[in-house]
Design goal:
alpha/beta; Glycerol-3-phosphate (1)-acyltransferase; two-stranded antiparallel sheet; 16 helices; 8% strand
C-alpha cells in the first residue's frame, strides 16, 4: 500500500513500502528545489480533500492509490420549529457529527420573519385601512364645493400661467406659448370628473318621472320637438320614399348609412317615422359609444331616445318588439372626407346580421342623402380630439373659422329612402354562427344600400334644392 502523506505539503517526498532507505539511495536521489508551500484554499466542509502524489520514477515501483471517498451528502439541520426525522437521526449517527457541515447562521430574512406582526396586528391594520377607505369614499360622495376646490384652483393656476407666458418671455411672441400647458388646461376643463359630473347633473336636472330603462324622457323630447320639426320641414325639407316598407308592429331594424360630421340622421329618422309613418311608430336609434362620455351630449341624446350602441342594448330593444335604427359604419361613416361622401365603409363584422338572425328580426335598408353636405368635412383634427376624448373634431369650411356660428348646419336638401325588408325567418338561431352566411348577408345588405344611394344621387339636381 502507498503510504498516506500527511502534513501541510501535499507533495512531500516519502519512500514507498519496500524501497531502500539507506544513505546511498538518499544521495542518489535527485535534489529538488525548495518551493514555498502554496496557500491552502478554503474548501467547503462537504468536499473531500484530494491528495496528490509525485509521479513515479523509473527506479520506483508503481503504488496503487486507493480511490478518494465519495462526497458526503449535505444534511440540512432541522429548524427550531421542526423536529428531526428518524431518517435524519440515522444519517447523522452513521456519518458523524464532525463530518456534518456547520449550521448556517440565521439570515436577515429569517430575522424579519421572526419580527413580523402577529395575526391580530394584521387584522387591526386591515380594519384601519378599510375605515380610511370608507371615510374617503364618504368624502367623495358628498359632492360639495370643498371637494371641487382643488381642481378649480389647479385649473385657475394653469390658466394664469398660460395667460402670463408672453409677458414673461419679453418679446411678445404669442405663437411660442407652451403647447403642453394649453393641452393640460383643456384636458382639465373638458375631461375632469368634476365637470363631467356637474354637467351630467345639469342635463338631468329637469327630468320627468316617466323615464324608461334606457333613459328616454317623453316630456323632454316633446319640448325639443318644435326644433326638430323646424329642421325636418323648413331647414332640410326632408322627402321620404318607401316608408310603407316598415312594418306597423313587431320588431324591426332599420339599417342606414351613417353620414354627416355632426350626425343628425338618428334624430331625423325618428322624426320621419313619427310624422310620415301610418302608425306614427316611435323609433330608438343606436349612438356611438363615445357620445355617452361627452359632457351634456350623452345625457341629452339619451333623453331624446338614443341608446348606447352595443349588442346587449340592441337585443333588449328588439325583444320588446321595438323599431331600432342601426348604423353599421360607426365612426368610420361620419369621419369620411367630403370627397368620399356617400361611399359606404365596411359594415364591421356583421354583428347586426347575427343579432337579426338570433332574434328573427327583419332588416329594412335605409339610404339617407343630404346629410353629408350639412357639415362638409375637410379634415379631422386629432390634437383637439385627444383633448376632448372624442375620435375626431371636424374641420369644415365654417368651423372653426366662424366660431360657434360654424356649428350651424348648412340647409341642404335631404331625402330618406326606405327599401324592401329582408326577412330573417328562414334561418335558425344556429345560423348566426355561420360566418360564411353572415358575411354573404352583410355584403348583400351593404350593396343594397349603396345602390339606393347611387340612384338617389342620380335623381338629385342640386344639393340645396333637390
Amino acid at each position: 500500500m502507498a503510504r498516506r502523506v500527511l502534513g501541510d505539503d501535499p507533495f512531500a517526498d516519502g519512500a514507498p513500502d519496500g524501497a531502500p532507505t539507506d544513505d546511498k539511495a538518499k544521495a542518489d536521489a535527485p535534489k529538488k528545489r525548495s518551493v514555498p508551500p502554496k496557500p491552502r484554499k478554503s474548501v467547503p466542509p462537504t468536499a473531500p480533500r484530494k491528495s496528490k502524489a509525485p509521479p513515479p520514477t523509473a527506479d520506483e515501483p508503481v503504488a496503487r492509490v486507493a480511490p478518494p471517498p465519495a462526497p458526503l451528502p449535505v444534511i440540512e439541520a432541522p429548524t427550531s420549529s421542526e423536529a428531526p426525522s428518524p431518517v435524519d437521526e440515522a444519517v447523522e449517527e452513521s456519518v458523524g457529527a464532525a463530518d456534518l457541515p456547520p449550521e448556517a447562521p440565521a439570515s436577515d430574512e429569517r430575522a424579519v420573519l421572526t419580527d413580523a406582526p402577529r395575526a391580530a396586528d394584521r387584522e387591526e391594520s386591515l380594519e384601519d385601512t378599510i375605515r380610511a377607505l370608507e371615510a374617503r369614499l364618504d368624502k367623495l360622495l358628498e359632492g360639495s364645493r370643498e371637494q371641487a376646490q382643488p381642481i378649480l384652483d389647479r385649473v385657475s393656476d394653469k390658466l394664469r400661467a398660460v395667460a402670463s407666458a408672453p409677458a414673461a418671455r419679453g418679446d411678445g411672441a404669442a405663437e411660442a406659448r407652451d403647447e403642453g400647458a394649453q393641452y393640460d388646461v383643456a384636458k382639465d376643463l373638458f375631461g375632469s370628473q368634476y365637470y363631467l359630473r356637474q354637467w351630467g347633473r345639469v342635463a338631468m336636472r329637469d327630468r320627468s318621472e316617466e323615464v324608461d330603462e334606457f333613459g328616454f324622457d317623453p316630456s323632454y323630447e316633446a319640448r325639443w320637438r318644435p326644433l326638430f320639426d323646424f329642421l325636418y320641414e323648413r331647414w332640410w325639407r326632408v322627402d321620404v320614399e318607401g316608408i310603407e316598407n316598415v312594418p306597423a308592429e313587431g320588431r324591426v331594424a332599420l339599417v342606414a348609412n351613417h353620414s354627416g360630421a355632426v350626425p343628425y340622421d338618428g334624430i331625423m329618422l325618428a322624426a320621419a317615422m313619427r310624422r310620415e309613418h301610418p302608425t306614427a311608430r316611435p323609433l330608438r336609434w343606436l349612438a356611438e359609444d363615445f357620445v355617452s362620455h361627452l359632457p351634456f351630449m350623452g345625457a341629452y341624446l339619451t333623453r331624446l331616445g338614443a341608446v348606447r350602441a352595443c349588442q346587449e342594448n340592441a337585443e333588449r330593444l328588439l325583444r320588446k318588439e321595438s323599431c331600432v335604427a342601426m348604423f353599421p359604419e360607426g365612426v368610420k361613416g361620419i369621419s369620411k372626407l367630403f370627397g368620399d361622401r356617400y361611399k359606404l365603409q365596411r359594415f364591421g363584422r356583421g354583428g347586426h346580421i347575427k343579432l337579426a338572425i338570433r332574434t328573427r328580426t327583419p332588416l329594412v335598408p335605409v339610404a339617407i342623402v343630404g346629410a353629408e353636405e350639412t357639415h362638409p368635412l375637410i379634415a379631422p383634427s386629432g390634437v383637439v380630439a385627444r383633448m376632448l376624448g372624442v375620435p375626431f373634431v371636424p374641420i369644415t369650411p365654417t368651423f372653426p373659422l366662424l366660431g360657434a356660428a360654424g356649428l350651424v348646419p348648412l340647409p341642404s336638401k335631404w331625402r330618406i329612402v326606405f327599401g324592401e325588408a329582408m326577412p330573417m325567418n328562414a334561418y335558425g338561431p344556429d345560423a348566426a354562427d355561420d360566418e360564411v352566411l353572415v358575411g354573404r348577408l352583410n355584403e348583400k345588405l351593404r350593396g343594397t344600400i349603396q345602390d339606393m344611394l347611387d340612384r338617389a344621387l342620380r335623381q338629385r339636381r342640386s344639393v340645396f334644392t333637390g
